[in-house]
Amino acid sequence: MKKTLTLLLACALVMSLSAACGSSTAAPTTRPAASSDWTPGAGYAGKYDPSNVLTISWVTQGDRPVDPDSAITKAIEEMFNLKIDYVYLQRAEQAQLLNIKLAAGDIPDVWRPAGNAGYRELIPQGVLAEINMDLLQEVAPTFYAGALDLYAEFGNVFEFLKDDGKLYALPVYEINSSYMLMTVWRDDWLKNVGIDKIPETVEEAEAAFYKFVNDDPDQNGQNDTFAFSGHGINHFLYAYGGPGMNNVIRDGKVTRVVLEPEHKQGMAKIVQFYADGLIDPEFHTGENRGQNWPLSIPFFNGVIGYTAGHMFYHLNPPLAEGANGGAFYEGFLDLQPDGSWDFGKPLKGPWPEVISPRWGIVPGGNNMVYGVNMTEEKQVRLLQIIERQMTDWDVFLLLDSGIEGIHYSTSVNDKNQTIYSSLLNREDQYQPGNRTEGFTYVHGIARDFVIRQDISNYDFAEKYFTPKAMGAIPYTNPIFGTLEEEIRDISAALGTRYDEVRNLFITGQRAFNDTEWDAFITELKTLGIEKYLEAAQEWYDANK
Ligand SMILES: [Ca+2]
Q1: How is 164-224 classified by DSSP, letter by letter?
Q2: How far apart are CA 64 and CA 90, in angstroms?
Q3: How far apart are the first and last CA of the chain?
Q4: 182-357 CATH fold
Q5: How far, in Å, CA of 380 to CA of 387, rounded?
Q6: Which of 57, 330, 385, 460 could be 85's S-S partner, Cβ–Cβ 3.0 to 4.6 Å?
Q7: Is residue 363 packed enough to be buried (19+ CB in 10 Å), middle (13-18) or exposed (0-12)?
Q8: How far does residue 332's CA lie from ligand 1's centre (Å)?
Q9: Measured in angstroms, how far is the CA atom of residue 342 from the centroid of ligand 1?
Q10: What is the 35 CA–ligand 1 centroid distance (Å)?
């Protein structure tokens, strides 16, 4: 969400709190100082003088190099007695370029591997520093406890990340991924066809879908609307367990939804809907039609009345004075100024629970790792920074949002909450050196601070996008640690073939009947689906 507030207004509002307005290029006067009361002593922190200036090399993740002289870099270096040596690798090729560096023995101090699989591949290469658990618990106790707490539903996150009893990564908690994806209905269309409540069951949804096609929901006298497109297919199927390639744990057994009887029922519905003209015939081309992915072009064009898969920050109306709404909110408003939509409900269907997807907060996402050449002193220093980030709001704000007057302005809303509004355009916000991502990558563990920093947006998320608000159990695709290359290849082949055959079934190019479905399942077995599930089960049993 692009948040802009005029500097003038922001300054007027903060005048009573700060005298800094106008001096927008000066370093912040309230910046916390580095600890100056250090004396040699017991423990890891007592071994290293925090006034020693340390150089750390840090692989950034933006789309362009970081300015090493940026105001925030200078502030961080001064506060923590660091010299930051930014390593920029072109983003599209970051993994390959990093591998070349690692192979040449040029190992950075800090980076984020690509997901759990990328992390596990690095361990046997010997390029990662082992993270000393005693040191971690002594120097960063708030971070340690916070990570355990946030990932509690998955067990001990540090044990999950270990390999052969050794820890090589710090968990990164993606707070946004804890919120569920939303479905959306044209509520004006529902009213126009005589339906006065948002559908909650597959039967109610089906009735609305037929009326969206047959009863002229846009009241233009023409038969020119469909019920839904590609996103609608996937989300309707969650009432039947979900899209076929999703992994699920059922009674302790790892399976794929395609193998479950409910999925076949759901596919039968979709096939029927397509045959009856309910589904946008261009569903397979992507609802965003080549534009930004959260945009549903057929929904914006008034062609369909049901879509799904959006995050809270795509759907929000303007949440602060002068702010814009989310991309979906604004995109719809542009093209359908007289139309309206409302949040949907995850549909109740044959699957035993009402489920709805979220990206997921499974451990093993893009963790933060330290290079093998990282000294113990550097580990202590970086963990001290992390601990300050977890416990000191001013430090968190500096690392996460930058410097007031340069990177953000503040105002107070009608609930007397402080609103932090970026003064940068979106592209610049995401450049390290203009931090919003969090200098140490693990900022998400400071969940309360993350929320406080963007209170309007998270109030909105908490109100509508939680399991409680949506009345559904969140579905997260489980991760199965280190699966061998052969197993990963099987998974990729299954996904490709599933998509092809699914589309043939939906469009009627392949007859959807018991014989053809059984043949399809047999083909998936030939491609190795059972071998995949066996490997996943083995991991799950050992790590659940
Ligand atoms: Ca019409």
Answers
A1: TTB--EE----GGGGSBPEEEE-HHHHHHTT--S---BHHHHHHHHHHHHHS-TT-SSS--
A2: 7
A3: 36
A4: D-Maltodextrin-Binding Protein; domain 2 (3.40.190)
A5: 10
A6: 57
A7: buried
A8: 18
A9: 20
A10: 68
Compute the average pLDDT of residues 337-341.
Answer: 98
pLDDT, tens digit (0-9, with 9 covering 90-100), for 108-146: 999 999 888 789 889 999 999 999 999 999 999 999 999
Place of tokens 């469009």: 507
- CA triple 69-72-75, angle to 5 deg: 90
Tell me which residue has tokens 């549909």: 347
Ligand 1 centre from 221 Cα, in Å?
5
What architecture (CATH level 2) is domain 7-27+39-177+362-467? 3-Layer(aba) Sandwich (3.40)
pLDDT confidence bin for 360, thresholds 50/70/90: confident
Q: What is the pLDDT of residues 235-244, one digit of tens each?
A: 999 999 999 9
Residue 292 pLDDT > 90: no
- Compute, in angstroms, the gap from residue 213 CA to the centroid of ligand 1: 8
Distances (CA, A) of 182 to 232, 461, 479: 11, 11, 23
Q: How far apart are CA 473 and CA 452, in angstroms?
A: 26
Taking Cα atoms as reference points, which of 62, 66, 18 lies closest to residue 397?
18
pLDDT for the residue numbered 15: 32
Residue 60 has pLDDT above 60, yes or no: yes
345 C-alpha vs ligand 1 centroid, how far in Å? 25
CA of 458 to the centre of ligand 1 (A): 37
Task: Kindly tell me the number of DSSP H helices and DSSP E strands found in the chain.
Answer: 23, 14
Amino acid identity, position 174: E
Show me where the domains of the chain are located. 7-27+39-177+362-467, 182-357
Report the candidate in 56, 59, 55, 53 with the shortest Cα–Cα distance to residue 79.
53
Nearest 5°: phi and psi at 185?
-120, 145
Distance from Cα 265 to the centre of ligand 1, integer Å: 30
Please say whether the beta carbons of 68 and 428 come within 8 A: no
Cα 210 to middle of ligand 1, angstroms: 13
pTM across the whole model: 0.81
How far away, in angstroms, is 228 Cα from ligand 1 center? 14
* Per-residue pLDDT tens digits for 225-235: 999 999 999 99
Domains 7-27+39-177+362-467 and 182-357 equal at CATH topology level: yes
Asked whether the beta carbons of 182 and 343 are under 8 A apart, the reply is yes
